[in-house]
Please model this.
Amino acid sequence: MLRRSAISFALLLALALPALARTRPHYGGTLRVETQADPWQIPDGLARRLVLDTLTTIGPSGAAQPALAVRWESQNADHRWEFVLRPAVHFHSGTPLTADAVVASLEQTCSLPGVTPCPWTAVRAAGSSVVFVTDVALPDFPELLAQTEFAIARQDPGGAVDGTGPFRVTGFANGALTLVANDDCWQGRPFLDSLQILPHRNIRDQWLDLSVGRADVVEVPPELLRQAQDQHLTLLTSQPVDLLALTMMPQGPLAALEVRQSIAAAVDRAALCNVIFQKQGEVTASLLPQAVSGYSFLFPADRDLERARTLRGGANLPPLTLAVPNTGATIQLAAERLALNLHEAGFTTQVAPGSHSPAPLTLRCEHLEEASPRAVLDELLERFGQNSTVTGTDPASLYQSERNALATATVVPLLWLPRAWAVGERVRDLRLSPDGIPLFAGASLESAP
Model:
């Protein structure tokens, strides 16, 4: 009996070994990714995430975890922060990472056009530490430093971007950006030998390339998630991480608060979600998603056309321009649907696709990097140019801060949308970061030797 059991166990083990071998990560191979966007854009460019590191990173719980900084402490009631750098870290060029190099990178970031103001008033090197001073208390400062706009970079003598991340840039040829594994990465060498990113590809071409094996990872916009499921694609889907919002300039034709409130009451979020985004979004009148704040439902999101007409009254307004910086077809459709909503409330609205110039109305899609409630709210208020101060970290304080910010009716949250990616058969162990970006440093390929 014992001998028979031993033979049975040996047979089961023999059958299991090939399966174990198939799932064990392999070193080697080139993974091919296709995207619509620029791989270097802030905040969600894939190449930026792979080549550069930040001082901190966001863990699954939403709290800051060590990255280029191994520890930190706050002083002076969260007005002064000191971050101790990880020792023996080098840029891809071999140059050591120093506090002076970090300060130089951050100061350059703060001077870039189009980047929101840095949340500190001063930054300096102190031995192996970097010290920040802020003019307001920032208990969530370590989480804020995890944003990719604060990634640490330097220009090498040839002008290329020099980082400390798991991959380094080797060139751009035939429309594709090639990154190779950083063998000396402080996080450990990636399993992949290299990664190719082919940007500016429309979704149709991305899906076609995935189907014939020319791509391993492609994008799935939220409005196409149901179609991707019907086609039985292997999907990785995030929590809601992109906020679609309507912003209004409180000057000119929209100077009166009642007029802005009228526009806010006229928008039909449910139609946007159900028709344009195929029920894949989270309807919201709150800046924070329900999963983050727990109180999003307290902000009424239903359309109130009668109230919109009453608030507008007999105001004689000129035609309003609705700027749409994102020229994607779905965002364009969302803007046209909003224009129809406003027409029913008595507003004449002209949609301006691709416009980045100041306009009375702008439809924006903001990507969320943070995961802790206060850090999320701080980030969004800054992006939308709000002067409101977030006081406290408890839900009641956050709710009051958000309510005060939204009372001006210059920002109208509409939908929170997820991010999704379709993955080819040979990709193994690919996961998403908390903000829905693929973590390619931990992925491997089945066909790699």
